[in-house]
Amino acid sequence: MSKKKWIIISSLVVVLGGGGYGGYHYWKANSAAEEPVMEEKPQLPTVAADTGEVKKTIYSTGTVEAKAHEEVKSDMSTKVERILVKEGQHVSKGTPLFTFDSADAELQIQKQEIALSKLERDMLELGKRKDKIVSDKKGKIKEIMVKAGETVSTNQVIAKVIDMDHLKIVGKFYSVQSTKFQVGQQVRVFLRASLTYTEGIVTNIDQAGKKVENAGVLYDVEVLVKKDSGLGVGDIGQVEYRGPNGEIGLSQIVTKFEFPEEMEIVAGTEGKVSKVLVKEDDAVQPGQTMVEMDMEASDLEKKEKEINLKEAQLDLIQKKRDLSKKQVTATVGGVVTKINAKEGEQIDGSKPAMVIMDMSSVYMKASVDEVDIPYIQVGQTVDVYVTAFGNQVFKGKVVEIPQEGTTQDKTVRFEVKILIADGGKMKHGMTGDCDINVNRVENVVRLPVNAVEVLEEGKGTVMVKDPNSGELMPKEVEIGIEGAEFIEIKSGVKAGDEVMVTGGMG
Fold first, then answer.
1. φ and ψ at residue 444, rounded to 5 degrees
2. What is the DSSP string of 162-177?
3. Contact 402, 414 (CB under 8 A)
4. What is the Cα 380 distance to its own chain's centre?
5. Rounded Cα–Cα distance for residues 346 and 399 (Å)
6. Which Pfam families match (predicted)?
7. Contact partners, residue 231, CB within 8 Å, separation at least 6
8. Minimal CA–CA distance to 25: which of 46, 45, 43, 42?
9. Which one in 142, 216, 473, 476 has a CA-CA gap of 20 to 30 Å to 38?
10. How far apart are CA 290 and CA 268, in angstroms?
């Protein structure tokens, strides 16, 4: 009962009691002349101070917990091969619980190694990236095939150019004649217009041949000649043939001079294009810069690849480590209370594969308000009540007081750990409450809490009954421990003194 409430009740009783007794004498005095009445004093409830135990407790609700509670989990993404225990089975620390199918794990490792190799190759290619693309050809640009902001690959064609310094002529020969030519061979070409010869180089020899009307099957021999002021596209000529025995001849058909096939310029690097420096119809020379690359984007990509590579390396290490954990063992001793894992299936990551609990010791986690925590000490005795067992009292002891509280409904509470004796019947997760005995004295003078008006800490008043006259007189007392049922009286009242109480004797 709170001090404030007791003060109100006690004062009210004193007023009522005093008022009743005073009224009695007033009535007696005024009615004495009328008729004699036998005087009878009012009987107010009293209690005798005695000696005994006084204890102060702190009430709290809590939850029952096992000594050890392990939820067995695994990051393995492979199937469970065998489950080695059953629900209800007692296991010791280190007992094998289940095994994984290592075939899947080994396959995952192989896949990760391939992915890692690809990332390493990508990093190598990033290191080879160039800051520009240069021409390796001489000629006039016919087509630009890349734009700023686009991404190019190493073998991608970025431009096509025409060799403006040379012309091509194709000589038509019979098979036996075509075999006498070699790529790179220097030959002469007869110019029909000027009846002169010019020098050329064989660049290609047809191995298939084509059938030509009135000539049979002929084979093409391509010859590249240097263009000069007297030779142009559309001029006609014939490629000269020299046999092994010194015989000389010309290709079977007169053909026209034309520009060589378009030449392709490839990127030779990869990445994002920053700027294109040339345009169509521009003349380019070998070594000339055609495109500038965005190296800032390449640096960012390189950093991302480095992160991906590191993650892949760590993932591979983890997978190999997981493979070494093919057999999962218990980290605590106890009873297997739940098995969610199933043979032939992967473990559901949202649930523990197994649950192991050690119920050899049982605890209550009591939620204590922050205003009460200063009074609680390790070793204090506790009366524990578990909802499932009604009013049965279980003895307990405070074994741990946390250094940090948690906020619940705008109040701070501390989870005090209480060891429960004889808690073998309890189950993990049961709810209950407890009285923590924070102070206790024995063989002291005491009064019920409804016999003392507490004025302030250490001080109170009582209504003491005179053993001779039966009169009730107020008296100040020194109080000690204020318990739930009794208050310790240090001075002012001795054992045997009768004191008025309010209400009943409970």
1. -120, 155
2. E-TTEEEEEEEE-HHH
3. yes
4. 40
5. 41
6. Beta-barrel_RND_2 (PF25954)
7. 167, 191, 198, 225, 257
8. 42
9. 473
10. 12
Cβ atoms within 10 Å, residue 296: 10
Contact predicate 212/172, CB 8 Å: yes
pLDDT of residue 39: 56
- Determine phi and psi for 12, rounding to 5 degrees: -60, -40
Separation of alpha carbons 13 and 451, rounded Å: 11
Q: Report CA 333 to chain centroid distance, whole Å.
A: 28
- Give dist(CA 302, CA 296) in Å, integer: 10
pLDDT for the residue 38: 54
The confidence score (pLDDT) of residue 309 equals: 84
Query: Which domains occur in the chain, in start order?
Result: 3-43 (no CATH), 55-65+357-500 (2.40.30.170), 134-294 (no CATH)
Give me the amino acid identity at 98. Answer: F
Segment 329-349, tens digit of pLDDT: 888 988 998 999 898 888 888
Over 246-287, what HEC string results?
CCEEECCCCEECECCCCEEEECCCCEEEEEECCCCCCEECCC
Q: What is the pLDDT of residues 83-135, one digit of tens each?
A: 999 998 999 998 989 888 777 677 788 888 888 888 888 888 777 788 899 99
Maximum alpha-carbon separation in the chain = 181
Cα-Cα-Cα-Cα torsion 124, 125, 126, 132, nearest 10 degrees, comes to 140
Give the per-residue pLDDT at 156. 93
Among 495, 365, 465, 488, smallest CA distance to 420 is for 365
How much is the pTM?
A: 0.45
| Range 282-296 average pLDDT | 91
Say how far apart CA 91 and CA 109 lie, in whole Å. Answer: 32
